[in-house]
Amino acid sequence: MASTESPSTGPLRWQCEDLITTVVLDRPQRRNALDSATVQALMQLALAPPPGTAVFLLAAEGPHFCAGLDLAEHVALKRGPEEFFQLCRLWHTAFDALQQGGVPVVASLHGAVLGGGLELAAVAHVRIADETAFFALPEGERGIFTGGGAIVRVARIVGTDRMTEMMLTGRVVDAQQALRMGLVHEVVEEGVALARARVLAQKIARNARATNRAIVTALPRIAGMSHSDGLYMEALVAAHVQATGEVHERLTQFLQRKAGH
Fold first, then answer.
1. Is 139 a catalytic residue?
2. pTM, full prediction
């Protein structure tokens, strides 16, 4: 399959090759802090993935994944309550589009994963960190409050009690602690997180598209349902996936291999 890439420079760059669209935060001089242009660009990619995209691979240029909200832009624009509310809603829309858009997201994390950077990382369905990664929610120290979805996404990963403590104290969590807390799924040696994340992205890309879409869209919704509603929704999703031609073809091939044909 031919490779396609972002047509111009900007706060992020992307390249689609072999079913994987690698999206790279590209503001290393600002520790990849998220300004409005970056969030807009992420939303546009999520809403209209490059043709052929089966998996998004999220990475970052420079020594840090993302230091959070671009505070310089925030202070310079002197946002009032209404403007900041609208900014939060932009982040919510963009991050929801990534997490719930039906395309699995694999993240490669290194260096600072702070505040809004952790909110972005929490969007990913698979999170790989190297040993340099460290995580924190420093909003209390900055005099602000989470606005990019941490109060929902991160709290559901680590629990409200742990998140409260992290926000109040500004505790910095290293990669191994993050692994134990569930903030990441795997920790690897320094400098190899992207390579490992790519291996997993390639594995995911080989799955049936309908199954991948069901996993990343149905599971989080079912988690918020009652026991009975969740089981009913599971049956509906399973019936839909099972009826797709690709899945039927894969099952037939599996049975033929098992029978030794």
1. yes
2. 0.92
